[in-house]
Amino acid sequence: MKIKKENTTSKKSIKNIVKNKQTILKPRARVNLDKAVKNVKNILKEKRSQAEVTEKKEVNLRKPRVKQFKAQKSENKGIVYVGHIPHGFYEEQMKDYFQQFGKVLRVRVARSQKTGRSRGYGYVEFAYPEVAKIAADTMNNYLMCGRLLKVTYIPPEKQHFGFFSGANWSEDEYPKLKNRRKATLGRNRLQSAENHKKYVKRSLRKLSTLESKLKEKGISIKFQPIDVPET
């Protein structure tokens, strides 16, 4: 029997070639992995920076813009604060009234941003501070339409342009005020005889429903309307 000898040299050479290939491929694979990791890190950094920029923009949009008023440099003008203003004593009326003391330059009544109604206080600017002091002394604690006016002189150190920021206002800026005035004009205008009869019928129905509700609760009351037209 002949025994075949295995070629050990060929096997060894194949193993050496494989090892050499592995040693050649390993550093290249590591380099590729490092590059991929760096690329991923750079992409994540860019996304984070973009997200931070968008968050800052959203925060800036949400924050209300506060007007910063500079101090008033001119000391030749006198400003007066007027508080507890009664209903109906607004810009035109205040200007006409305070002109008895001296020349009035500007008048502003503080109003609500939503409804346009008066907040009960305002500012009056005179041409001279001496006139403003006299007006404040005479009009402070003055009874007008059931209210005591609180009038104080504002010294030049505490004056700023924000006192008259909303002086030139209009009804177009306050749609609720405009609609309310339209409704009041519609109610107060002259009605025809037919419309007045319809209005009386509606009011009588409301009174009858109210009487029935009170009867259910054990209260018997009959409302007697006045000046009901004959049908």
From TrEMBL:
It is found in: Nucleus, Nucleolus. InterPro entries: Nucleotide-bd_a/b_plait_sf, RBD_domain_sf, RRM_dom. This is MKI67 FHA domain-interacting nucleolar phosphoprotein-like. Keywords: Nucleus, RNA-binding. Residues 78-156 form the RRM domain. GO terms for molecular function: RNA binding. PANTHER family: MKI67 FHA DOMAIN-INTERACTING NUCLEOLAR PHOSPHOPROTEIN. CDD domains: RRM_NIFK_like. It comes from the Eukaryota. Its main location: nucleus. The keyword Repeat does not apply. The gene is LOC105429189. GO terms for cellular component: nucleolus.
